[in-house]
């Protein structure tokens, strides 16, 4: 994966049923190859999915570096995902995709939104803003936060 030439998966794309995890793995692949570009492996969003799953980011990166296929990466991540119930995963997915930034993250969010989508006050989450930034279609919603 070369993130200097392509985008990672969307936050909302699922890996083994978990949002954010596929994007994190894409960034790990790019990190392992030295072409992560402007992206950051183990950023705050990655750290959140690592905490949820109880996974160590350095160990995952080591697995990615040595994997010959996605099946090997999946074999490593599967026990962490399987340790969660279906309801826990669904709750994580729902909350992660709808969580609005707070504190310093909110200021960074609002600055980026003003830069790349100043007409999109309906965009209130990082997943949607990152999708817009990465040229993905994000449906318009009723704005509830400016």
Shape from CA axes?
globular
Give the total of beta strands. Answer: 2
| Radius of gyration from the alpha-carbon trace, in angstroms | 16 Å
Question: Strand order of the main beta sheet, please?
Answer: 1-2
| Structure classification | mainly alpha
Structure report:
The chain is mainly alpha-helical. It has two domains: about 1-85, no CATH class; about 100-145, no CATH class. About 55% of the residues lie in helices and about 5% in strands. It has a two-stranded antiparallel sheet. A hairpin with a 2-residue loop joins strand 1 and strand 2. Helix 1 (about 20-35) crosses helix 3. The longest helix has 14 residues, at about 105-115. The N and C termini lie far apart (about 35 Å). The mean pLDDT is about 95.
Identify the notable features of this structure and list them briefly.
146 residues, 55% helix, 2 domains, 2 strands, mainly alpha
Layout of SSEs?
Elements: E1 14-15, E2 18-19, H1 21-33, H2 44-53, H3 57-66, H4 70-82, H5 86-98, H6 103-116, H7 126-133
Helix pairs in contact: 1-3, 6-7
Summarize this structure briefly.
The protein is mostly helical and 146 residues long. It folds into 2 domains: 1-84, no CATH class; 100-146, no CATH class.
